[in-house]
Write the structure tokens for this entry.
Amino acid sequence: MRKKTLPTFDSISELARFWERHDLTDYEDELEEIIERVFERPKKKSLTISLGPQDWEALRSLSRKKRRPSQQLVNRWVLDKLHEEKRSAKS
């Protein structure tokens, strides 16, 4: 039986598609343990905002009502607005 050889991949999505259709045990002889990271997520940046007391309380109240951390709510709002701006800039 001919030994299978691992192909190379240009992206994580190609790699994922390959392993969805193949069995790891077919390539055991080619596998080796590595220590360093191969794929790293980009580091996130943080931003501090200042709110007045009334706005802060309104945010906290909404956060409790939605049962989500206030930081998560604000992050979602900012991302939604950024995506909206990108879409309108393309039009």
